[in-house]
Specification:
Elements lengths: L1 E3 L53 E4 L4 E3 L3 E3 L1 E3 L6 E3 L2 E2 L7 E2 L2 E3 L3 E9 L2 E9 L23 E3 L4 E7 L5 E6 L2 E7 L2 E4 L14 E4 L3 E7 L6 E2 L2 E6 L2 E6 L4 E3 L7 E4 L3 E2 L15 E2 L3 E8 L2 E4 L4 E3 L3 E3 L8 E3 L3 E4 L3 E6 L7 E6 L2 E7 L1 E3 L12 E10 L2 E8 L7 E6 L2 E7 L16 E6 L16 H18 L3 E4 L9 H11 L3 E8 L13 E5 L5 H15 L3 E6 L12 E8 L3 H8 L1 H20 L2
Parallel strand pairs: 3-11, 12-22, 30-35, 40-41, 40-42, 42-45, 43-44
Antiparallel strand pairs: 1-41, 2-5, 4-9, 5-8, 6-7, 6-10, 10-11, 12-26, 13-18, 14-15, 14-20, 15-18, 16-17, 19-22, 20-21, 23-26, 23-29, 24-25, 26-27, 27-28, 31-32, 32-39, 33-34, 34-37, 36-37, 38-39, 43-45
């Protein structure tokens, strides 16, 4: 980590030379993903792509013997500008520097392609795999098609559903103790592609025909039982049975287990998987009763799901409930701290709006008659209401539209909320960012390569080049710049998040370059895009996007709300910028142009000055 205040740094030009970023999407596509599902633009690229040799035909994507389930594939590479490049005897378009990214259709099975430039030739094989569910040709169930696949627990009266893929036109039922559940054919299914499908304009519902798909539901009427569902298939007077891998447990409402969050910030979700949306993180120490289980996931009594390893069971504890009475605040040099005394750490939710910050306490009943809140730079008034039994909502009415971040933690059983004050913004023309701490994060690094452009040049190197140039521009304008990395090193997403939380900059910016999935139109898809998660970062994301498009003339790939590791920190407005596509020849040429790199850094710095000046 380095903080700079005055001196500029010489930029070292990177060598002429981007799996998953885990929660970012600027990389290669996964090689194995469910039908019509775009899993994430990531792939483990090993060994590292080497430098393209001068005067050599090179294809950097797809990798050798690539497998995909898409109906087309693009070829990313380069060759000397003179002469022509053919793929399977078809002349392809190239950029001024000789880069190319055409797409070709794929037939099921093996597809052989010949890439040719003058007397150079490369042969490649791409295999399109069929991941459609097949109906069994013999009497029986498709392997791993019985659900539930994992143990589940629900309260009496809740719905439990079962499904199977089996021989068509059969009678299917599930025996669950003394209950019998009939499953009916559901051959037509409506599925949704992954969230990332929005980036290739394929996020619409998909109608699928799955012969032999059966489903049915029931409710549990008693509590305390553990049952193993037995599936029974009958056809032409033949019957076979098979038990599901997961068992069914009916919880007793009078004996609900209680857990405590042991992670620093427990990840609460809308459902029992990492594909379900995130809710407000639960501070360490939160206690709640468990009202449902699914595999290693627990449903807490306020509605959120949490991964079991982030909790510990509290033996003999009763479902936590609390009252809340008086509330006190104090003004610190850089934040206002509000303390909510509680009897037990309860689950919480946060919602940020225009000039409002709303804290919801679950499993809590208000007996609040007294609140101390002196005048301060940020908060105009604090209001509260009991919006439902055992749910209390506190709304901070703010003096300004812009919010600057918050911290939330339990100290014993008292909840402590810190709302950051606005930073002191200089109005000096020469050094308008004087005293402002800005964190810059160059994506990837070390073994985390990121995407590769047509020449094999890596996004991790390009990210660092641009970030250093921006650092120098910001320092000249008076900013105190903190870099997450200044060289090619491994650095986890958690470590980068921790730096933002510990340093508490005025803003945090992350830089990446993108890559498309196999069925993306790499030749024509280009442009810059910006990403935000908390409302406090929205205006910054929009302004920087507009500056890049209007001042640099770049194509716009859009502004997105997105659940990314480096947009999630809430201690400061945090924005991630994708500065172009490594998979697009024209974007890549702009990205590699030193003059354009300087223009990009200057426009970003001017945009940051403009944003702070408007606050």
């Amino acid at each position: 980590m380095m903080i700079m205040s005055i001196s500029s740094h010489e930029l070292q030009q990177s060598k002429n030379l981007n799996v998953p970023d885990k929660q970012n999407f600027c990389n290669f596509p996964s090689l194995n993903f469910p039908m019509r599902t775009f899993i994430g633009l990531v792939v483990l690229l090993t060994p590292a792509v080497a430098l393209v040799q001068e005067n050599k035909l090179t294809v950097v994507y797809p990798p050798a013997n690539h497998q995909t389930n898409t109906d087309k594939i693009f070829f990313l590479g380069t060759a000397p500008p003179s002469g022509e490049v053919y793929i399977n005897n078809q002349l392809i378009n190239r950029s001024q520097s000789g880069h190319f990214a055409p797409s070709f259709p794929l037939q099921m099975g093996k597809n052989v392609f010949t890439v040719r430039h003058q007397n150079q030739e490369i042969q490649m094989q791409v295999t399109r795999v069929d991941v459609q569910q097949q109906t069994p040709t013999q009497l029986g169930f498709i392997a791993d098609s019985l659900t539930p696949q994992v143990d589940i627990a629900r309260l009496p009266g809740e719905e439990i559903c079962f499904s199977a893929i089996a021989t068509s036109n059969a009678k299917i039922q599930v025996n669950l103790g003394q209950q019998t559940v009939n499953l009916t054919p559901q051959t037509q299914q409506i599925s949704l592609p992954s969230n990332a499908a929005i980036y290739i304009d394929e996020n619409q519902p998909i109608t699928q025909n799955i012969p032999g798909k059966y489903q049915g539901c029931t409710t549990l009427t008693t509590s305390g039982d553990i049952k193993q569902p037995e599936f029974q298939l009958t056809l032409n007077n033949q019957t076979i049975t098979q038990v599901s891998p997961g068992k069914i447990h009916s919880l007793s409402p009078a004996k609900l287990p209680v857990v405590e969050v042991i992670a620093e910030a427990g990840v609460a979700r809308t459902g029992p998987s990492t594909t379900d949306s995130r809710l407000t993180p639960l501070p360490k120490g939160v206690r709640a009763a468990v009202t449902g289980k699914q595999g290693d996931w627990l449903r807490l009594d306020y509605g959120g799901w949490i991964h079991r390893p982030e909790t510990r069971t509290i033996p003999t504890a009763i479902p936590p409930r609390s009252h809340i009475r008086s509330i006190i605040s104090q003004q610190l040099p850089t934040a206002t701290e509000i303390v909510f005394p509680l009897q037990v750490p309860v689950p919480v939710s946060i919602e940020q709006g225009d000039r409002t910050f709303t804290l919801t306490l679950h499993n809590t009943t208000a007996q609040t008659d007294t609140i101390r809140l002196d005048d301060n730079p940020m908060i105009a008034r604090l209001d509260w209401q009991q919006i439902a039994p055992e749910t209390v909502q506190y709304t901070f009415n703010l003096k300004n539209d812009q919010q600057w971040g918050y911290n939330l933690q339990y100290q014993d059983t008292s909840l402590v909320l810190s709302l950051r004050h606005p930073p002191t913004i200089s109005r000096r023309q020469q050094r308008p960012l004087s005293g402002l701490k800005i964190l810059l994060n160059a994506g990837h690094g070390g073994e985390e390569l990121g995407a590769a452009g047509p020449t094999g040049y890596l996004a991790k190197d390009l990210n660092l080049v641009v970030t250093k140039l921006l650092r120098d521009e910001l320092v000249r304008r008076g900013a105190l710049v903190v870099m997450t990395r200044e060289d090619d090193r491994d650095m986890s997403l958690v470590a980068r998040q921790r730096m933002i939380d510990q340093i508490e900059p005025a803003i945090a910016l992350t830089f990446h370059y993108r890559f498309l999935p196999d069925d993306g139109d790499a030749e024509n898809t280009k442009g810059v895009s910006s990403y935000w998660y908390h409302p406090q970062a929205h205006s910054l994301a929009v302004l920087l996007q507009n500056r890049l498009v209007q001042d640099l003339g770049r194509s716009s790939f859009g502004v997105y709300w997105n659940n990314l590791a480096l947009t999630r920190p809430h201690t400061a407005p945090s924005v991630l910028l994708e500065l172009g596509f490594m998979s697009n020849p024209d974007d890549f040429e702009l990205a590699m142009n030193p003059q354009e790199q300087q223009r990009l850094a200057r426009v970003l710095a001017e945009g940051i000055v403009e944003w702070f000046s408007s606050q």
